[in-house]
Amino acid sequence: MNTLLINPIAFSIGSLDIHWYGLILGSAALMGLLLAIWEGKRFNISQDFFMDLLLIGVPSAIVGARIYYVAFMWDDYKNNLIDIFKIWNGGIAIYGALIGAIIAALIYVRKKGYNFWRIADICAPSLLIGQIIGRWGNFVNQEAYGGPTTENFLRGNLHLPDFIVNQMNVQGVFHHPTFLYESLWNVVGILILLVLRRQKFLRAGELFMSYFIWYSIGRFFIEALRTDSLAFQGAEWLASLINGMWAPMTWFGFEQGYLAPSYGNVRISQMLAIVIVIAAVGIIIYRRKTVVDLPRYLDPIVSTKLQDAEAMPVAEVPGQAEQPVVNESSVTEKDHSDHQGEHEPKA
């Protein structure tokens, strides 16, 4: 029986159906943009820079998310390649979206002459607020939910409101609202990032790494509740290790969602979450030990392209040697740039 309580179509314009999912994702992108613009003003970065970054980043994220998904589900697409482009049928992955967006951002930011780490730090909270809002698109579509549970667990243990409990009744079976778990986890995460970025000890790139650490920890525990995870066949010791790390969730009454043996025994998102946490911590330690004069988050941000454009002009006086005309604003920006002292990472 059909238990989808919310019509996924918000409204129609002629024959064009406007879905809640698209409106929610659009709202998520807009809120992320506004948050980045707000913080960017503190560093005198124009809002046009972030608007262009969004216009480049969103399509790149969609392409990356699709490529990531198709790569791990290649057997389902290799004999029918046209289906690869049918993204409206579902099949995207958040880690793929991050990879695609980061690659595009790295190219764009370098082209504009900014230090990638500095811009990534500004955008870190925007990523979280985008995920906080975006996950509610899964709620409307009644997708990306967890394994079966009881109505009593949702109402009595978690004290969820009726509209969430009822929407989690999928064909007569109640399921874990994993969209809600991840959304709430990210709410706590964004509060932590907003506090961290005002601390004097925070260095360039560390807020961005903190985002990955926080999100990946939550994703590790939430992913195991889902029944639609991408997976691979790993060594038994690896599967046992991951299951053992997840085991504390059972203390709170949670059980892992069903994972078909044909998919594998190790969830890719869980494995990747572990790798990301280790890598992020390692990057923070490595950069602190090896980068000379590693700038702090609160230090000024200066574009090398803007510096070049505002370089000191040369006065041409007949019969005299050319003398540089001192531009006080250029000197000031150069002084600011001395605080950065770090080369950008190579793409």
Automatic annotation (TrEMBL):
Its EC number is 2.5.1.145. One of its GO terms (molecular function) is phosphatidylglycerol-prolipoprotein diacylglyceryl transferase activity. Signal peptide: none annotated. Pathway: Protein modification; lipoprotein biosynthesis (diacylglyceryl transfer). It is an enzyme of class 2 (transferase). A 1,2-diacyl-sn-glycero-3-phospho-(1'-sn-glycerol) binds at R135. InterPro entries: Lgt. Residues 316-347 are annotated as: Disordered. PROSITE patterns: LGT. One of its GO terms (cellular component) is plasma membrane. It is a multi-pass membrane protein. GO terms for biological process: lipoprotein biosynthetic process. Its main location: membrane. Residues 331-347 have a biased composition (Basic and acidic residues). Keywords: Cell membrane, Membrane, Transferase, Transmembrane, Transmembrane helix. It is found in: Cell membrane. The keyword Transferase applies. Catalyzes the transfer of the diacylglyceryl group from phosphatidylglycerol to the sulfhydryl group of the N-terminal cysteine of a prolipoprotein, the first step in the formation of mature lipoproteins. Belongs to the Lgt family. This is Phosphatidylglycerol--prolipoprotein diacylglyceryl transferase. The lineage of its organism: Bacteria, Bacillati, Bacillota, Bacilli, Bacillales. The gene is lgt.
